[in-house]
Design brief:
two-stranded antiparallel ribbon; 13% strand
Length: 172
């Protein structure tokens, strides 16, 4: 059987960014009738308080996704590893933050038997922003430092966490 699913933002299910959690949950319960998997786009730093730094990401951050009774897949995620300015906001991050988020994410993926996890950006792409259209550069900056390797190819702390989990025997 070919599993089919759509991807939804966990932040909105949780009622962050001005979303009405009750409405989101009700709508999603109806949509889950037509999905084999609950796909989630997860970027906690985008939906945090005005500091844009949910620190630490709460241990129960993924728990609200369990209520739908479907296998969970993280269709895209990431956390920045350094400071940047975008969309009239200053974002303050470091490699420890990224490593801590990756540790929590992959621990929960094992605990809850997620189908898969995609870290959306494998390698930082800040240099690539130079060829982005002018009107998209600032938006692209939000994800430019979410790679598990720096743009020079050097691994970040979060990549070591990823590699540990990659080597774990995981059976569903």
């Amino acid at each position: 059987d070919l599993p089919v699913f759509a991807s939804f933002t966990l932040a909105h299910i949780k009622g962050l960014a001005g979303a009405d959690s009750a409405v989101q949950v009700q709508e999603l319960k109806e949509l889950m009738l037509y999905n084999d998997i609950l796909g989630l786009s997860v970027y906690p730093f985008l939906w945090a308080d005005p500091s844009h730094r949910m620190d630490p990401v709460p241990e129960d951050y993924f728990d609200s996704a369990l209520q739908f009774g479907k296998p969970i897949a993280i269709t895209e995620t990431g956390a920045p590893s350094q400071d940047f300015h975008a969309l009239d906001s200053d974002f303050e991050f470091d490699e420890e933050y990224q490593k801590d988020y990756m540790t929590l994410l992959l621990k929960k993926a094992c605990d809850y038997e997620f189908v898969f996890v995609v870290n959306w950006v494998p390698v930082d792409f800040v240099d690539l922003l130079e060829v982005f259209p002018d009107d998209l550069r600032e938006l692209g900056m939000i994800w430019a430092y979410t790679g598990l390797q720096r743009s020079d190819g050097c691994p970040k702390k979060a990549l070591y966490v990823w590699d540990v989990y990659l080597s774990v025997t995981y059976s569903r």
